[in-house]
Design brief:
This protein is about 35% helix and about 25% strand. The protein is an alpha/beta fold. The strands form five sheets. Strands 3-2-4-1-10-9-11-15 form an eight-stranded antiparallel beta sheet, with helices on one face. Strands 5-6-7-8-12-13-14 form a seven-stranded antiparallel beta sheet, covered by helices on one side. Bound molecules: fructose -6-phosphate (F6R).
């Protein structure tokens, strides 16, 4: 959450800061700000709301200066107003910050006891004021170093100094920080995408490291302030090819890209000629895996639940799933024959990264299924299986979810085969079904007009329920999550069989109930549960891959997706639900790519 940028240059930096902040807005969009150094004084401009507002301010009163830092905020401490917007500056120093200073209250009390005054409600201001104090007796780098020793929590910082007008200092503990290089210009940024239009030469700070930028050079230091060298990575054009193209929203573009992204993913892992899956180098001998523990948050957690059904169906391995923010605080029994799999689009989610750290401390083998391969989670795990979905900008995850499911399914198949839980014939049949997936996804997406009609059923709805059984249950959860985050409409995902144990009380005349019922072993049971809802006045929106099921008058709206195979139906059934959430959000005039109160990369606990 929150995006930071810093530029040291031989020319004015404010417009490039604005352009980078626009790219970082997916990380937070409550408020925005920048600070530049002009005539040896710190010149701050801030606003609540979007970067667009900040740009308007700059058009009226431009900010000069060849050194500057910028920020987009996802509020944690203090309401999203101008005062709490970053940067936070004193007479001497200006700071942008991503993450949380956990002991800020304690430090604030100590500083206030010395008579130091605070302007904002943020945790960041303690960093500004600690550095300001330290500068009375130290140089900038030592002042930052001394300040870091006092801070608890996870963060990335960008700092400029009134009296040292040629440097920016960057520091990382937990939250990501990239460094970019160019001719007579150097940069820090929360990700390489923010630096895209300025450079393709990138390094990443590791935990505890600092950097000092001037326009001509970058020096790196480790956590003991010893100078170190960093590798420079050259980012390819592909890693950067991100724009909305013909689409109005990133989310819709990302939904429509899914046949391609899933195909890329399959091509990466499946050897079509040999009908084999190229997953090698398991960190534990697959025969010896005792249990698989899958961990993630939000949509990524819904992928974990789906994979549990697949692993149980295809393999003899015991499976456990956990939400990262629960896993990390539980009293767990670790076993070196267990494989711990972390699923994350960004690879930066604080809870998932912390859960991974706990596993590492307990010397167990870890695997990450990520989209961003240079991310913290990918770098810290023993084994990485990328999903190859390309950058996902829409805050609500769509193509990354399908990518996660695809990789998890491929992994399950490979494990089942190498452990001889399935025979070669079944293995090859499942691979051949998998290869049909991109075309089937295309067919699902072609049904968009029908989904648009279905979305109209939500115009007056006060809430909704999504029901499924078996592997359709996590898809019900995902459908409900997408609808609530995009359209701010209450939505509950439930196992259909669980309705009678309480939630049935919520059903009233006209409540939209989305029933996800593929033709699998649960079909008849799901239909019975649907009847119970119909009997109480619920308005049924029915989604199936069953060609035979005739849609009767009790079903308000029916949608059919193609059928390839029961194991793969959760992937196909997801598509109408993504489009449904998108169209309901459009009807309700919601900001599809940047839903309120959310951010793409959740780097706070
Ligand atoms: C929902 C959504 C979130 C993320 C969750 C985990 O659409 O995007 O629920 O799935 O914040 O994020 P990652 O996958 O980056 O760890």
């Amino acid at each position: 959450m929150c995006g930071i940028i810093g530029i040291a240059s031989n020319k004015s930096v404010s417009m490039n800061i604005i352009n980078s902040l626009k790219k970082l807005e997916y990380r937070g969009y409550d408020s925005a700000g920048l600070a530049t150094l002009t005539n040896e004084s710190i010149n701050e401009k801030k606003c609540s709301g979007r970067v667009e507002e900040l740009e308007k301010i700059l058009f009226k009163t431009p900010s000069e200066g060849n050194i500057g830092i910028g920020h987009v905020r996802w509020a944690t401490h203090g309401v999203p107003n101008v005062i709490n917007a970053h940067p936070h500056s004193s007479e001497q120093v200006s700071v942008v910050h991503n993450g949380i200073i956990e002991n800020s209250d304690e430090i604030k009390k100590e500083l206030e006891a010395k008579g130091i005054k605070f302007k904002s409600q943020t945790d960041t201001e303690v960093v500004t004021l600690l550095i300001t104090e330290a500068l009375k007796i130290n140089k900038p780098l030592e002042s930052v170093f001394e300040t870091l020793k006092k801070l608890k929590g996870s963060f990335a910082l960008g700092i400029i100094f009134k009296n040292f007008s040629n440097i920016i200092i960057g520091a990382r503990r937990g939250s990501p920080l990239a460094v970019g290089y160019s001719k007579e210009e150097n940069y820090i940024g929360s990700d390489s995408y923010a630096l895209k239009s300025m450079t393709n030469k990138i390094s990443y700070l590791d935990d505890g490291e600092l950097c000092v930028l001037t326009k001509d050079e970058v020096n790196f230091y480790n956590k003991n302030l010893k100078k170190i060298n960093k590798k420079i990575l050259i980012m390819s054009e592909d890693e950067y090819s991100i724009d909305k193209g013909e689409y109005k929203h990133f989310m819709f573009k990302e939904i429509m890209e899914q046949p391609e992204t899933v195909k890329n993913c399959i091509d990466e892992y499946v050897d079509s000629l040999k009908n084999n899956i190229n997953i090698l180098n398991f960190p534990i001998d697959p025969q010896k895996i005792n249990k698989i523990v899958l961990i993630g948050c939000g949509t990524a957690y819904n992928s974990c639940i789906t994979a549990k059904y697949w692993l149980e169906e295809l393999t003899s391995i015991d499976v456990e799933i956990d939400i990262a923010s629960e896993f990390r605080y539980r009293k767990l029994k670790f076993n070196s024959n267990n494989l711990y799999i972390f699923v994350s689009q960004s690879g930066e989610t604080a809870d998932t990264a912390a859960a991974l750290d706990i596993c590492k401390k307990n010397n167990v083998k870890t695997c990450s299924i990520v989209n961003v391969i240079e991310s913290t989670i990918a770098r810290n795990s023993d084994w990485v299986l990328p999903i190859h979905a390309g950058t996902e900008i829409g805050v609500a995850s769509t193509k990354a979810f399908l990518g996660q499911l695809t990789v998890l399914y491929i992994l399950c198949l490979k494990l089942a085969f190498v452990r001889q839980d399935i025979n070669e014939k079944t293995y090859i049949k499942n691979i051949s079904n998998l290869k049909k997936l991109p075309d089937a996804i295309k067919k699902c997406l072609a049904g968009e007009n029908n989904v648009q009609l279905m979305a109209k059923e939500f115009i007056t709805a006060k809430g909704s329920m999504f029901l499924g059984r078996g592997s359709s249950f996590p898809i019900a959860l995902e459908g409900a999550l997408k609808l609530k985050e995009l359209s701010y409409l209450h939505a509950e995902g439930y196992p259909a069989g669980e309705m009678k144990h309480g939630p049935l009380a919520l059903i009233e005349e006209g409540l939209p109930v989305i029933v996800i019922a593929p033709k699998d072993k649960y079909f008849e049971k799901t239909i019975s549960n649907m009847q119970e809802v119909i009997a109480r006045g619920g308005k049924i929106l029915f989604i199936t891959d069953n060609k035979k099921e005739s849609l009767n008058e009790n079903i308000r709206f029916g949608l059919r997706v193609p059928h390839i195979d029961n194991l793969l139906s959760p992937i196909l059934l997801t598509l109408p639900l993504q489009m449904l959430a998108y169209h309901v959000a459009l009807i309700k005039n919601c900001d599809v790519d940047k839903p309120r109160n959310l951010a793409k990369s959740v780097t706070v606990e």
